[in-house]
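Narrative of accomplishments. A recurring question from our advisory board has been how the design workflow behaves on a single, concrete structure rather than in aggregate. To address it, we present the structure tokens for one chain from the evaluation set, followed by the sequence designed for it. No filtering or post-editing was applied between the two.
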């Protein structure tokens, strides 16, 4: 009886690891669904960001708000302009039979920012939700590193066909953690620049920094992360493909 109980207890950690890996692979697939790689193994950054449409959808609504407010110094027209631009992109996606989530997500995001600014009557508050979301993402990314599930590993591991096998290679896991730290550094830089501008009510520089430190800087971070996490050799790539079959020869991972 005691032998059966000890056997069950011994199996529990392996079962927990299996469940953790299964959940990790599901999260990895969902997180990486919008990223694309070329046949030569390099990251297709432009396509991953949605191309010209993705760039326009991310930058034109806030750019419209910034320019109209700077020109008119009226909150109403500025908010309306950003909503109209976001709405035009949403309608275009619906016409081209895009998913409902894709069609309305941009409108909802801009709408929430506009609602906050409308309620407070302060143009700078159009950007406050973005600052808060940046803090949430920064916290989540740091936690992912601390628990040895770095977000970049989930993203790139799925694209490279590694699943979550990279977690059982200490060297590759460290590089995915470093790549995640690069994205954390970008988000910390955003916070360090934008919060003082927000507090100082420097609307023009605040809006400009949101545009400059948005998609372009994020794309650079993704590219750098992809480059430093490339398999160093064919042998390393083969090891990650083998996954759990080679775990006995690797450093144990605490989940």
């Amino acid at each position: 009886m005691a032998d059966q109980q000890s056997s069950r207890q011994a199996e529990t950690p392996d079962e927990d690891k299996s469940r953790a890996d299964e959940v990790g692979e599901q999260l990895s697939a969902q997180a990486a669904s919008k990223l694309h790689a070329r046949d030569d193994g390099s990251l297709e950054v432009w396509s991953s960001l949605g191309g010209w449409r993705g760039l326009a959808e991310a930058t034109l609504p806030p750019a419209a708000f910034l320019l109209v407010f700077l020109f008119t110094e009226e909150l109403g027209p500025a908010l309306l302009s950003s909503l109209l631009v976001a709405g035009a992109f949403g309608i275009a996606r619906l016409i081209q039979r895009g998913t409902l989530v894709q069609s309305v997500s941009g409108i909802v995001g801009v709408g929430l920012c506009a609602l906050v600014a409308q309620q407070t009557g302060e143009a700078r508050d159009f950007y406050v939700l973005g600052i808060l979301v940046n803090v949430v993402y920064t916290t989540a990314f740091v936690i992912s590193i601390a628990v040895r599930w770095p977000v970049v590993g989930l993203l790139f591991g799925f694209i490279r066909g590694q699943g979550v096998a990279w977690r059982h290679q200490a060297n590759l896991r460290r590089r995915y953690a470093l790549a995640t730290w690069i994205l954390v550094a970008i988000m910390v830089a955003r916070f360090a620049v934008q919060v003082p501008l927000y507090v100082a009510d420097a609307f023009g520089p605040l809006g400009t920094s949101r545009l400059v430190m948005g998609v372009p800087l994020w794309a650079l971070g993704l590219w750098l992360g992809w480059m430093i996490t490339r398999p160093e050799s064919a042998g390393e790539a083969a090891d990650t493909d083998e996954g759990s079959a080679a775990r006995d020869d690797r450093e144990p991972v605490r989940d």
